[in-house]
Amino acid sequence: MTDTPAKSHGRLAVRPSLTPRDLMADTPALARAWRAQVITLFPEAFPGILGLSLTGKALKDGLWQLEAVDLRRFGEGRHRNVDDTPAGGGAGMVLRADVMGRAIEHGRAGMDRAAPLIYLSPRGRPFDQAMARDLATRPGVTMICGRFEGLDQRVIDHFDITELSLGDFVMTGGEIAAQAVLDTTVRLLPGVLGNAASAEEESFSDGLLEHPHYTRPADWQGRSIPDVLLSGHHGEIEKWRQGQRESLTESRRPDLWAAYRARRG
Ligand SMILES: C[S@@+](CC[C@H](N)C(=O)[O-])C[C@H]1O[C@@H](n2cnc3c(N)ncnc32)[C@H](O)[C@@H]1O
Q: Which atom of ligand 1 is the closest one to the Cα of 169?
């Protein structure tokens, strides 16, 4: 699933003559599949967990495709250096603008222009379900995984890159964030979830957190399942679940609750 290895050992690695675009021309189904491209120093981290379960089956079935572009291929010199010290001094290293620029140009050459270019970054807009829904309607996405102190700002400005955050915490690299974004998005693609209704009922789908779930055994450690769920009255069950969704959201997420109330007038 990693990018095709480069033949050249020159300054700029050159892709062999057969590109993924050529391959896709021979397989129309793949040409239409949602396409994820990840620029990373650790292509071996992909597909990772995405190769398992529903997302893995969807990958095998060609419902989406994944290309990991190895940033190291675009590095400088014999050691393929990708980073350097920060201008102005300070701790850590910064990913070089020229190296990342080459990797992005290489990756974007094979991508539909309507696929957004995203940099996973703690400074970015917090990722949410609405963004995943939007991404799922696009032809795909290119995601850049940062390392060290992150990207040279000129790259972000030059390519007009959207910064996306997984949350208010700092990880060592963007790979886990990229996988989280992909997992969330791929399961919304048509045909990926067996039961389409389950995506509609999940947390955030209508602005509320999801209601609690129960299954067998009916009694466990002295705890029983709420009677209403065993009543068989679908109307009552739905009323109970809606009440649970509302009270959970009100107590745990006042921000979501306020937005939900405002939408309902
Ligand atoms: C050590 S972090 C760099 C943090 C950066 N110096 C800052 O303070 O904003 C290295 C890389 O991990 C990724 N990363 C870390 N935390 C992240 C988060 N909350 N969301 C998305 N990506 C994150 C980014 O790609 C980032 O470039």
A: 19
